[in-house]
Amino acid sequence: MCIIISGPLGACWQADRVETALKEALRRYATGGRDASRLEVQVMEEGAFAALEMPAGTDITVISTCENLDNETIGNGTLGRIAALCRSRHLRLVCICRRQALPAKLLRKAGISEIWALDELLDDTDAALDSLLSPDTPLPLMVAGCDEAGRGPLAGPVFAAAVILPEGFYHPLLNDSKQMKEQDRELLRGIIQREALAWCVTPVSAQEIDRINILNASLLGMRRSLDGLRDASGAPVRPGLILVDGNRFNPYTTPEGVAVPHRCVVKGDARFAAVAAASVLAKTWRDEYMRRLALQYPQYGWDRNMGYPTPEHREAIRRSGPSPEHRKSFKWLPEEENLLF
Question: Do 2-132 and 143-290 share a fold?
Fold first, then answer.
């Protein structure tokens, strides 16, 4: 394998940091952890790279650097010219940058295969995630999106989901599940379950909610779903990064004892495809469960209200009392109605 490192190497960065990052890129990514000293590595400027003659079928990865990966860089910068050359020669192009501000569609159009954060290569993962985290950025990690459905209902479990989508996954209907039509959610459920690299949905019962409270139950469901991530063959899949909808999550360690970084993102289900997919699975699985439960307890109308505190639901509680599926730690009726069951 021949790795050509091309482009401006440190105009805005300290030279020693760039050198360290490039060496780490070779070791960690380009070689799969193998000895990089066995690779043929050429470092050259753009002009020399443009004039280079390469035999057909040569396995070459071009690694180029830039400070900010944005429209200006791609349109008028050195990286844009390198990307055009790589596209014409069918070469794999990887970019190392400090900040990424391009949507995924433009990255694919430019022919950039991967983006690595300088700080990640220098083992500053937090800074790397902050610099690369944007709704349309293909992150250099296997990302699991997590979300839940059913925190507000008076009855039934809360459902949590974790989803790892393939790079570049896109569907025009995918959004925060609460903003979608029911038929669109059901359509996407099948697509997500079929095309995701891994997914898992986990319920946490009303009894567990009463014992540990709804917030902890939601977080517990997410952890169980992360533990349960499997691919199509049933093999366990472990993420490199967790994106969680909301502002609360506890540090996660895999069953094998590996700590996985996470980021909480308010309204993440409207920003990140993996989180939106988790939102869709959690919502559709819970709705299906509540419709089945409504057959056992038809008086509460759970096939219509999904256990939420609608006037219909509360009137049924006044009339029939609570069921074993009701959350005892929730207020079923207004405080002035002190009903004892």
Answer: no
| Residue 253 in tokens | 């360690």
The answer to whether the beta carbons of residues 75 and 109 sit under 8 Å apart is no
DSSP state of 165: P
Both tokens of 8, joined, read 């401006």
- Which of the four CATH numbers 3.40.50.2300, 1.10.730.10, 3.30.565.10, 3.30.420.10 does domain 143-290 have? 3.30.420.10
Evaluate the CA torsion angle 189, 191, 192, 197 in order and state its sign: positive
Q: Residue 3 belongs to what H/E stretch?
A: strand 2-6
Q: Which two tokens stand for residue 179?
A: 């903003």
Task: For 239-295, give the DSSP string.
Answer: -SEEEEESS----EE-TTS-EE-EEEETTGGGT-HHHHHHHHHHHHHHHHHHHHHHH
Q: What is the pLDDT of residue 192?
A: 96
Q: Tell me: domain 2-132, CATH 1.10.10, correct?
A: no
Structural domain boundaries of the chain? 2-132, 143-290
What tens digit of pLDDT does each residue of 104-154 get? 667 777 888 777 777 666 666 566 555 555 545 555 458 899 999 999 999
How far apart are alpha carbons 14 and 10 in whole angstroms? 6
Q: What is the mean pLDDT of residues 201-228?
A: 97
The model's pTM: 0.65
pLDDT at 93: 82
Paired strand residues for 44: 6
Judged against a pLDDT cut of 90, whether residue 307 lies above it is answered with yes
- The pLDDT-based confidence of 170 (bands split at 50, 70, 90) is confident
Q: How far is CA 111 from the centre of its chain?
A: 22
